[in-house]
Amino acid sequence: MSRASLAILSTENLLHNLQVIKAHAPNSRIIAMIKANAYGHGLRSTALRLAKYVYSLGVASIDEALALRRVGIKIPITLMEGVFEPDELLIAACENFHVVFHDQTQLQWLAKTSLPLPLTAWLKIDTGMGRLGFTLDQAPAAYEQLSSHPQIQQSIGLMSHFACADDIPHRLNQLQINHFNQFIQNKMGPKSLCNSAAIFAFADQHYDVIRPGIALYGVSPFMNVSAAALNLKPVMTLQTRLIAIKRIQKNETIGYDARFTCPDDMLIGVIAMGYGDGYPRTAQDGTPVLVNGVRCQLVGRISMDMMTVDLQAYPGAQVNDPVVLWGNGLPVEEVAQYTHQVPYDMLTAVQSRVKFHWTLYD
Ligand SMILES: Cc1ncc(COP(=O)(O)O)c(C=O)c1O
After folding, report:
1. pLDDT on residue 362
2. What are phi and psi of 261, to 5 degrees?
3. How far, in Å, CA of 99 to CA of 89, rounded?
4. Whose CA is nearest to atom 5 of ligand 1?
5. Closest ligand 1 atom, CA of 166?
6. Quick one: 27 and 166 in the same domain?
7. 257-286: per-residue pLDDT in tens?
8. In the prediction, which pLDDT does 4 show?
9. Is 23 exposed, middle or buried (0-12, 13-18, 19+ CB in 10 A)?
10. pLDDT tens, position by position, 150-169
11. Helix (H, G, I), strand (E, B) or coil at 77
């Protein structure tokens, strides 16, 4: 039998989460954020499952967008960071990639380019995130430049991004909402402001297009609200098997750096999953895992290919028992609390040597 590290991906849960999101914003179209390999779930496979239910797919680069066209995805694909060099504008126009313009250099490239076909454009406004986008001072001129370009489709989309939507009372949220509302006054074209957290938190700011990412994958965007409370279900279950069981004597140590010293004679299980699979090396002693459905605790450092678990809670464990690291029965949000990480980086870190297996769909 080959190494058993496996990411089981639930089509049913992905589509369920999409329905939950749609129910929260019934009047908005959806750009499903599938950048970064669909948050670690697989770019193409995730896109193929979502494409017929959403308006567009959001990616970070033209390479990701072209990979989607190669597997037959026909819907618009949105380049969330726009183009990185002028020639990409030509490709975008031919391939119906919708392009975000967030700085002056991109507009200069556009001004010098003769496009083969009209291009759909979004203008990104920095309302307080301090990352991509035109400031409120620069935005009117940028909007003018885009609007007056003969090969840009009218009407231009207007987009901004929250910095703190997961922290609902944060003062920046209202400020960003005010800035966005101020800028969009009297402007035609689709508007878009909300990521996952904002979709749940700010129902009156959904506008024409919402941009869910993490919620699609069944993860709560909030620290203090569970995915279950939002009716989201995990898409990825990361699992493997026990490959050895050992009796370790009191006062002996486990693993690299001898981080864990056994307080008693202990039954220790060895699990075929490590940081080489993308499991966080930062996981502390006590991090939960499910051995055959029974909650046990990690002890000792995570190795490249293995980790070790205290089997006191499950003395009946057998070699080859299934182990869930996160997903069904063990939310990744909960595991994250033991790792100094967040679900976003944990999910995107899962490596290609883990076998990906999607459940069937119609
Ligand atoms: C511009 C933009 N919109 C939407 C999203 C989706 O965010 P989330 O995964 O929090 O829903 C992201 C993700 O980083 C983003 O950069």
Report:
1. 52
2. -105, 130
3. 8
4. 195
5. 10
6. yes
7. 999 999 999 999 999 999 999 999 999 999
8. 82
9. exposed
10. 999 988 999 999 999 999 99
11. strand
Range of the domain at 243: 236-358
124 part of the active site: no
Is position 35 annotated as part of the catalytic site? Answer: yes
Structure tokens at 345: 């980086």
30 and 167 belong to one structural domain: yes
Q: Which backbone phi and psi does 168 adopt, to 5 degrees? A: -55, -45
pLDDT of 131-141, one tens digit each?
999 999 999 99
Cα separation, 209 vs 190, in Å, equals 7
Count of the separate structural domains present in the chain: 2
Cα dihedral value 301, 305, 311, 314, nearest 10: 140
Residues 116 and 79 in one domain: yes
Mean pLDDT in residue range 190-206: 98
Residue 361 above 80 pLDDT? no
For 333, the token pair is 């949000």
Q: How far is the CA of 254 from the centre of ligand 1 (A)?
A: 40
